[in-house]
Amino acid sequence: MRKIAVLAAVSGLALMLAACDGKAPQSAASAEASLGASGDAVVDDEPDAGSTDAAPVAVTALDTEALTERRDPERLLRYYTNAVRAGDWGNAAKAWSLDAQMTSQKLANDFGAGAHPKLAIGKGDMETAAGTSYYEAPVVVDYGDGRPSKRGIIVLTRVNDVPGASEQQLNWRIQRTSILP
């Protein structure tokens, strides 16, 4: 039932963003805040920088310690969304697992190098299987360049304190998402 509520909230956010031709309205922050008040929002509670494309985007400083996070996958998601919103593709790529082969150039191409995309990530579910933890959460992206918003999922993984695992394998990393080609 909880997944349905989260998906409904994310779908509603996607519809609101799509209705305004990809440009977030002034009240977008309040829509995100109401999602957050229900306890279902994880990230992207920053106010919109304004309605003009030339306005600078105010982004929280990157929490680079999130790259060594082993307990809270949402901390890595906050780091990633802040890096994406700032167009800091190099730091955003660091949130991905090595297996994903994500590069700063690929992120810039997929999100739009000159755009300031916004990600809204809902509360996810954690599962553990065969020594690996998985965290899957709903995500909505407003590309910020006129493309329609897209919703999907984002999946993070980490190896559970297995002998011989590398430092990066022990930390949360993005494994895949359905919002990028």
CA radius of gyration is 16 Å
Shape by Cα distribution: globular
Q: Oligomeric form of this entry?
A: single chain
The helicity comes to 25-40%
Question: Architecture, CATH level 2?
Answer: Roll
Number of helices: 6
**SSE class:** alpha+beta
Report the strand count: 5
* CATH-defined fold name: Nuclear Transport Factor 2, Chain: A
List unreliable stretches of 5+ residues. 1-39, 45-57
| H and E order | HHHHHEEEEHE
The largest pleated sheet is described as: 5 strands, antiparallel
Structural domain count:
1
Q: In the CATH hierarchy, what is the class?
A: Alpha Beta
Strand residue percentage: 15-25%
Rounded to the nearest angstrom, the distance between the terminal CA atoms is 29 Å
Q: Provide mean pLDDT, rounded.
A: 77
